[in-house]
What does this fold into?
Amino acid sequence: MTTMTGGEAVVAALEALGVDTVFGIVSIHNVPTLDAIGRSKSIEFIACRHEQGAVHAADGYARASGKLGVALTSTGPGAANTMGGMFEANYASSPVLMITGQVETSEFGRGRGTIHQAEQQLAMLRTVTKRAEHIERADDIAPTIMSVALDMLSGRPGPGAIEIPIDQQYAPAEVAELRAVEPRRTTPSKAMLEKARELIASAQRPLIIAGGGIGLANAGAELTALAEKLSAPVLTTVEGRGAIPETHALALGPNIDMSAMDPVMAQADVVIAVGTRFQQNTNVLKWLRFPGKLIHLDADPTMIGRVHPAEIALVGDARIGLQALLDGDLASSANADWVTACQARRDECVASNRSDVGPDIAAIMDAISATLPHDAVVAKDATISAYLWGNRLLPVHQTRTAVRPTSQAIGPGVPLGLGAAVATRKPTVVIQGDGGLMLSIGELATAAQYKLPLIVCVFNDRGYGMLRFIQDMAVAGRRTGVELATPDFAAVGAAFGIKSARIASVAEFTATFSKAVADGGPWILDIDLSALTPMKITPQPKPPRPNA
It folds into this structure.
């Protein structure tokens, strides 16, 4: 046993978990813990400007690195400020550990209005985490952190939270030797794997659908090997991008919600879904169902069969499950014409997407793709620039390089990119709308302070473009709350000490973006959409509702 303060016990646990970065904001309710972080030889503290931004940054760090993301906040209003970020981490199955303070043990639960007192804080945190705990004794700090982290990283990952009263952070703690945790990984049953191989062997028109679980399990190589062995085309969700390089002949891209892909899913006789919940805008939620038989591999057994009935349920880690399939006698009888037909559908989607966004935006996406290395992270906000440009036209070559708000919340783009830039220290691009940027603009100061290689591309239409479109469609063109007074982002960047440029043409973007990538420091590119060829938005038709 070693005696140390409760704050030092936090750091001892984080070091044992291999944590090298903590994002957060200093407070009277975390001073001992932050002091111990400051004295650590292996952990860097990144001082953010808002607690929600700190959690988003920890989330971006976790997604880009594959490691535990950690955020440190105050109790009460500080913890409440994190809820948008924790909601997103929970939605994205991202392992973000939030450590927050709490009032002194002698005051907790007495409701006497102590500064930052939040009696129901733990209940609040439990709504957006896999596990949240309250610390009663300093001796419990390190083992609780280790235990919560183990649960966060096991199975389907997710966020966790721990609240530590300020007196327990100052108090002496007895800490035993700590060892790195080994997350629990489930292997699908041998009987179900054998059934899956038999069904796969019968497939003439196999289709693989890859979700975010591929990246979480680092299973891109195994997924690609399975596709090649079966000559099976691969559709991905947006979270599954990079599961197979999108330049691969078998890659159909993140076009699972494109109506042009409806025939592919309708004609596949065996569908192998890996690490996906079929969430949100996939065609299976547009009432389309697979006539073929579904094999569903997922770490979370509660998700198998929830959206689409599964012929074979493979409960297990994506990488372990895929490797187990590959290790067995896995034959293929795929029809050679099937891949060609699927590729034609993919090409139709690409052509349609390029036509919709227009030549200027398409050329800007081409310039980003040509300039960035394949391992560079692109973070996208929940805006038209993400939905129609970044998620459609910007190729992704490997997992952990495409980040977006999975919950489709507006505003996280910059802090998600900031965390990814801290994780990789490589050029990191944010594709952002002007409306979304205003929700996290303070984190530009963080990027400037730490000289991060963050390039923020603000596609500026002076309002909420997607909501304009929705209001035009839904309420006969009556617009409310979508026109915004927009600052001069280049001047804002300069005020933060960030290199900035106003962009009004493809040529200006190409030259400036290349300079920004080479420069290595933060940049803001304020792109005037009114100066570019206007895009068009083509609504996706829905298939007929079954039994309607």
